Amino acid sequence: MSKLLNLRTVLDLVPVNERTIARWVKAGRFPAPLKVGRRVMWRLSDLDAFADGGLTPLAPPAPPSPVPLTGIEADAARWAAMFARPASTRSPA
Predict the structure, then answer these.
(1) Which of 44, 61, 68, 74 has the smallest count of CB within 10 Å of its CB?
(2) What confidence score (pLDDT) does residue 70 get?
């Protein structure tokens, strides 16, 4: 059985706001949550599959950390690298 994550934890992993998650779910771009009673939860395995299954990062991944990260820190680092915005290449006017 996959670990279930609440919205707050998902937002810690995916550095976007709550409305963006809702729009992505509605558009089919993000795994749909499960209703557990009145709670909205995501399967960690669904989020891992989403992250591994074709989401192209906006910037090259960050260089590896000198100290290996584990658990939630490793997940957060992977998601942050995936959603990192490249530096602006616009020249000043």
Answers:
(1) 68
(2) 72
